[in-house]
Write the structure tokens for this entry.
Amino acid sequence: AVVAPLGTIYDTLWVRSADDSVRTLDQVADELATYDVVFFGEYHGHPGNHLAQMQVFQALHKRNADATLSLEQFERDTQPIVDQYLAGEIGEKTLQEEGRGWDNYEQSYRPLVEYARTHDLPVIASNAPKNIVICVGKKGPEILDEIPQPDRGWVAETLHIDEGAYLDKYMSFITGTASHGPAAKAEDDEAQDDESASHGIPDAMRGMVMRSFAAQVTRDDTMAESIARHLENNPGRNVLHLDGNFHSASHLGTVERLQLRMPDLKIAVINPIIVEDHDNPAWTAEDAATGDFILLVQTIPEDFVRDDAREKFQREIMSKRMGNKCEYGVDQ
């Protein structure tokens, strides 16, 4: 099919994976409105990706008045802060500071939260607190048994740390990080909130890498449980969940963990695909397999051109991560 070029970084192209057809936003929204939960993966900070999220949220709400927005970008213990903001009891600065909003909140997520606030729609602060994720990455999931309430309740009651496609994908990511290019930033925050940066996994390092995977799963299971609890307490609502695309591509990660909790849910996945040739955007069968719909977006600028600058940044990040302390356990 002949498709329009992606002329600006805001331009996107919708593709329905089932029949490889280019669709309009209205056509996409008509179909997505029939699902209970829609996962919209993202490249964090990509303007076109975030604009499309806002457009989908608005379109779904027009079709389903009982819409809910779920965000990876707020952690579960900040739900009271998010609720206070939606109720007009606090200002945005308080939301940002006490709610630990992401650095790109204003540019990327403010439009969606403001739409929810204006239309009196719930917003789920779905993610696991970073300090607990750090502990799992350092000490393994066993550390959760040492975390007292109410803190223990900020992460999922049950973690699914199983062999399977998601673990295989995670291992591939860990061993291939250096080749990810500019899109890697979309996955780095999730898949590297751990203590492993090895590009090969010898047996001696497998324990560390599995703790790293457990930290990743802590986020996935917590987001899945947060959505499931909302639906159990609010039957009939339709949820749009935003997350880094590593969490939801190919119906893995958070998606499969939500399906385990609520097998009867009808779940759709939107996955963004970076396009190198903006004038002739194209996709592969492998791209299409990552979601029920894929969203073609422009490339984003390289973080680094020179290897020495990239390596310096990586050393600084790893030094910071190695300095992270676990607040729980006997050897804090």
